[in-house]
Amino acid sequence: MNITALLGLVLLLPAANRIQPDHLPALLEVAEQAGTFKTLVAAVGAAGLTEALSGDGPLTVFAPTDDAFARLPAGTVEDLLRPERQADLVAILTYHVTPGTVTGVDALRAGEAISLQGETLLFRLEGGALRVNDASVIANDIEARNGVIHVIDEVLIPPTPTPVNPALELIRGAIDSGAPLYNDGQREACAAIYETTAKAVVAMGHSSVPAEAVERLATALDESAKLSSATDRAWALRYGLDDAARILMDLEVGDRPNAGAEVSPSEKVLFDFGSDAKGWPSVNDNVMGGISRGGSRLSGNGTVLFLGELSLDNNGGFSTVRSPEQDLDLSGWDGLLLRVRGDGRTYNLSALRNDRRNELNFFQQPFETVAEEWIEVRVPFDQLAHRVMGWVRPNSRIAPAEIRSLSFGISDKSTLPFALEIDWIKAYRDM
Questions:
Q1: Of 147, 150, 87, 77, nearest to 117 (Cα)?
Q2: Is 161 part of any domain?
Q3: Containing domain of residue 132, as a range?
Q4: Alpha carbon 430 to its chain's center
Q5: pLDDT digits 0-9 by tens, 333-376
Q6: For residues 304 and 298, is the Cβ–Cβ distance under 8 A?
């Protein structure tokens, strides 16, 4: 992010949020006068951010001390200060800054904030101290003319962006654009988007897209060309896009070294969300005309976050994320064990036979969370209720071997923002 973009973000803030004591020095001056942020001040200068941190603001800075920088691996700071590493240095420094004045109390209430770098900072209370990601705030709410400083004991490193297969990104974009059009009655427009996307992915060829995905899309294009109804064409193409996306997601997930590893004869790790894991695709109520927002992203700390906000407009009110379809090899296992940290709301865990976005046939069990506390949740397979289009089918069960995808969801009719953090998911066997 360049300096112009940084200043642009600041200028977009509401004027009311810019009122700061004029008699105080600016953020960078406060840091310089303290004498314990020499490395940070030098890094700000090398990154060309001096002007940005001296402007009107307001900004909130999570400032690592010199000791925090000293704990980085030997040579890291010197390497980042080289001119050719300026972009990386800017990314790290702007990850420590958020727009507006965010006090310690504000941080705890919000739970998270978007940094100027673009990634999210997470806040929590641990051992009586405010934490930002894995760093402790050792002094907070230090006022400056153009913002506030919180002193932290570790340097925050932004998560490495996960590369996305361009074909998969194209398909996801087409579905996100086409589904609302379909729900709005614009079936021709939806079918046109799906057709154009399918042709574009096929044109990428086998060198960029697995042959199985190319062939599936080619078949969908042939089938749709024989149909006169725009509705039928849209669905024929959509099924093809869904299948191609599943193939591409399977390719992205690959063979993770920890997936399926035996922890003991009674447990098996299914998902541990390490640095090589992927976020789970979202399926919100917009597939039925709603406008709720929700999705998943890796925290960078070995967990995945399910975040969003429900809307009850247009008869909506649900949000879900689901794992890519894969062989979970659950035959002979008795249930699932989860380690999660939530916000006190009730969530649902669902088992599905596939990961199609339009799938409304699943086996579900609700579970309650305890606000800001890690808990383990045990979900026996024989307690999963079979739901079809919202209706429960009693005495219907899913065989563990049939389960190809797992899903987390929320539909509690509350419009407050929700947040569920998942550490791992295991299969367990009663011994």
A1: 87
A2: no
A3: 3-152
A4: 33
A5: 999 999 999 999 999 999 988 766 545 568 999 999 998 899 99
A6: yes
